[in-house]
Predict the structure.
Amino acid sequence: MPIEQAARELNVGVTGMKKRCRELGIPRWPHRKVKNLQTLIDNVQELGKETEEVDGHLTRIVVERLQQTKKLIEERPEVPLDEKTKQLSQACYKENWKRKRGSRPGQHRAS
């Protein structure tokens, strides 16, 4: 959940929430990291549905690994994402961007 929502539910200000987090060793609120991992899990599962016959077991392994990483980040927010997860995230983002850009009506590519 976003830090603003967490602060509201705890009935404290955002600044006080950030200060307390830093005191507890959480330098940054991990909402974006967790949200990114959930989006990545959803993207991999969607892709896995398309290629289930070919590499369904690989999809399950990747999803399980991503879910473990997400759980770890929720438990220990200061842990950085590993390089493979970052690369997978960038690849999915790039593929989604290409898909969106390619599906725009009225767009013509210059040769």
